[in-house]
Amino acid sequence: GQLREKVAAAGAQSRVNVQRGDIFNLSFPDETFDLAFGVHIIPRFDTLENQRAALLEVARTVKPGGRLLFNYRNRRSLVYGRAYKGHAATPQEMDEILAAGGLRVTMSRGKMLLNRGLLNRLPLALGRAAAGVDRLMLGTLNSRAWDVFVLAEKSRGTKSASDQ
User: Fold this and answer.
1) 154: which residues sit within 8 A by CB, 6+ positions away?
2) What is the 3-state secondary structure of the chain?
3) In this model, does residue 152 exceed pLDDT 90?
4) pLDDT class of 17 with cuts at 50, 70, 90
5) What would you report as the CA-atom Rg of the chain, rounded to the nearest whole angstrom?
6) Strand 103-111's sheet: what is its strand order?
7) How far is CA 62 from the centre of its chain?
8) pLDDT tens for residues 64-115?
9) Cα-flanking dihedrals φ and ψ of residue 53, to 5°?
10) Residue 164 — very low, low, confident or very high, per pLDDT cuts 50/70/90?
């Protein structure tokens, strides 16, 4: 599809392997990747159990010392229940899931007010001002962001809950 076309256009076919698979049952061996990247995937699952299963399966494929980058919707956000009606998890629930997969959060950043669709509809000057307000709010209210991006690192020498 589109990703294969972009990889080919970049001349990266020898370095990038594009595969489609079941996130709940990945075909990769344990501890295969230095980095797993899954942005805008976890928020699509409508239960915490499905989010947990997907994250633990991806965590299984990350090498010790490797990293996982993903995002989720925060139930403790300022806009949850007002502007967002889908499933959302708390930061504590995400920390527990990551710990079960042998991961710990090394960095977390979120969006307070904006999403790309809204930002693209605003005039440039207003969009820049809104993005500035969003950044200022993050400085004091990061735990209340609605769309949280997480970088987690897999511990070295510890077994995940799925290995025990």
Assistant:
1) 59, 62, 63, 64, 65, 66, 67, 68, 101, 102, 103
2) CHHHHHHHHCCCCCCCCCCCCCCCCCCCCCCCEEEEEECCCHHHCCCHHHHHHHHHHHHHCEEEEEEEEEEEEECCCCCECCCECCCCECHHHHHHHHHHCCEEEEEEEEECCCCHHHHHHCCHHHHHHHHHHHHHHHHHHHHHCCEEEEEEEECCCCCCHHHC
3) yes
4) confident
5) 17
6) 33-38, 62-73, 147-154, 103-111
7) 14
8) 999 999 999 888 876 665 666 678 899 999 999 999 999 999 988 776 555 5
9) -60, -40
10) very low
Length of the chain: 164
Task: Give me the percent of the chain exceeding a pLDDT of 70.
Answer: 74
At 146, list the tokens: 């609605």
Largest CA distance in the chain: 54
- CA 81 to chain centroid, in Å, comes to 21
Rounded to an integer, the average pLDDT of 113-134 is 66
Helix 91-100 to helix 48-60 angle (10° resolution) is 40
Question: What residue has token string 């080919």?
Answer: 8
Higher per-residue pLDDT: 115 or 23:
23
